[in-house]
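Researcher: Here's a chain I'd like modeled. Treat it as a single chain, no partners, no ligands.
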Amino acid sequence: QVQLVESGGGLVQPGGSLGLSCAASGSILSINDMNWYRQAPGNQREWVATITRGDTTNYADSVKGRFTISRDNAKNTVYLRMNSLKPEDTAVYYCNAAIVIAPLAYQYSYWGQGTQVTVSS
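Model: Modeled as a single isolated chain. C-alpha cells:
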C-alpha cells in the first residue's frame, strides 16, 4: 500500500509565501513524475507543476515565475514553494505521483488527500 501525505497549507496574505510538501511511503521501488494540482471551489482540478525523476520541471502559465517545484528522491518527497501569492491561488492543493510499486514493478498514479491554501487579507 502506498500513501501520499501532504503538509504545509494554511492562510497567507496576498504577496506572501508558503511551502507545501508531500511525502510518499509504502512499497515503493521508484517514483517517476511528481505533480501538483489544485482545485478552487466550483472549479475543476487544474494542473500546477510537474517535476520528472531527472528534475525537469514544467509549470502552468498562471504560476510560472512564482512557484517552484522540487523533489528529494531519497525521501520520496515533492515540494512546492509558492511566492507572491494571489487571492486566485486559493484552492485545495493535491500532490500526485507516478509510483512503481513492489513486488511486480507496476506503475500506478497516486494522489494525496489535499491541503487547503487560502490567500486573503
